[in-house]
Amino acid sequence: METGNVFDVLKERGFIQQVTDEDEIRAILGSEKVTSYIGFDPTADSLHAGSLMPIMAMKHLQRHGHHPIAVIGGGTAMVGDPSGKTEMRKMLLQDVIKANGEKFKAQFGKYLDFERGKASFVDNSDWLLELKYVDFLRDIGKHFSVNKMLAVESYKIRLETGLSFLEFNYQLLQAYDFLMLIRTKNCILQMGGDDQWGNIVAGIDLIRRLESKRSFGITFPLLTTANGKKMGKTEKGALWLDADKTSPYEFYQYWINVDDRDVGKFLAFFTFLPMDEIKKLKELQGADLRKAKQILAYEATKITHGEEEAKKAEQTSRSAFGNGGGDIGGMPATKMAKSEIEKGINIVDLMATVKLVASKSEARRLIKQGGCYVNEKRIQSIESIIDLTSLENSSLILRAGKKRYHRVIFS
């Protein structure tokens, strides 16, 4: 177990954006075991990179002896959180939400230790789906001011495009979650992204009114990269934590290719390396900064996919970039019938078929800009035909730009 106050650790590493009572929660975290929670609505069949910051915060708390609860939003996912959304979420069937929640639980097991009560899962559908609506409005709804709710940033933004009454209930449900958890688990701390600040404060106020107890909230900064993009977005879409949706190699490549300006920040957020070491890595410049990126990629991949997959991704990356001459088996690959290439296949069609690009138009644009390679040979024309002469050991390696590789195996 780690020593020291976890609040100081989170603050030094940049996790703290807002906190309801910094002095008091810091004192409590330094003197007693605290139960905290973060909610995750299972609206997809995998967690993604946007979930990594809250997961890492939970792990830091656990490493310091505190008890984190991962709340699976089986109930709130049926309503949909309007925070950060410009339109209403697609409504999911209850059985889909339940199946997604089970996949979330399996993924959390890679990060948190659930043995001997060191962490726990809770599904808010256990209490939300049993609520009697009129009773809920009388007992809980009467404590909420519509004027205050409309002042919350996430609601204000959605009012411009249309906020459904269904979504308007979300803050009440999240506040009720906190109330139930302090009643049943003595959970006094809720954490989440900074877009959750209004919902967290609403829960704290509800607990004060109904339980006359002190509770606390901490929010994390909403992460964007140095070039203004949402952290975790790739050419193919979201950076998923499920290896079947984003391979360990692709996961590794995301981190090794981050903007130079983000390396120090991401090392603090997404690894457990000591801050003294991170500060030294952050000071590296030019070609030496590549070492810091390799460490970031390796450590982040190890946490999510395990040490073996991290080593494999690292070796594959070195081989792909011509630095190792080793195994490239971890590279994303597609198998195709040899007959497809015996008669020749247009490079644009090949790139689109293996989904190295999102569309044929993107492939054409990339080729015209000189960013398409087959076995490290630049493709000069969109009319180029790939045939048996392009194969090396019954396969070839496509490259799009400097960062995206894909192996095509013909049999």
The span between the termini is 51 Å
Tell me what portion of residues adopts beta-strand conformation: 5-15%
> What strand line-up does the widest sheet have?
1-6-5-2-3-4
Please give the share of residues in helix. Answer: 40-55%
Regions with pLDDT < 50 over 5+ consecutive residues?
none
CATH-defined topology of the largest domain: Rossmann fold
Number of strands: 15
Count of individual helical segments: 19
**Structural class label:** alpha/beta
Report the biggest beta sheet as strand number plus sense, adding barrel if it closes. Answer: 6 strands, mixed
Radius of gyration: 24 Å
Q: At the fourth CATH level, what is the homologous superfamily of the largest domain?
A: HUPs
Number of domains: 3
Q: Write down the overall mean pLDDT.
A: 89
CATH architecture of the largest domain: 3-Layer(aba) Sandwich
Question: Would you state the CATH class of the largest domain?
Answer: Alpha Beta
> Judging from the principal axes of the Cα atoms, what is the shape?
globular
Quick description:
This protein has helices at 6-12, 22-31, 52-63, 94-108, 125-128, 133-139, 146-151, 153-161, 165-168, 170-185, 197-211, 248-256, 263-270, 275-282, 289-305, 307-320, 338-342, 347-353, 360-368; strands spanning 18-19, 35-40, 67-72, 120-123, 187-193, 216-220, 233-234, 237-238, 333-336, 345-346, 372-374, 377-378, 385-386, 395-400, 404-410.
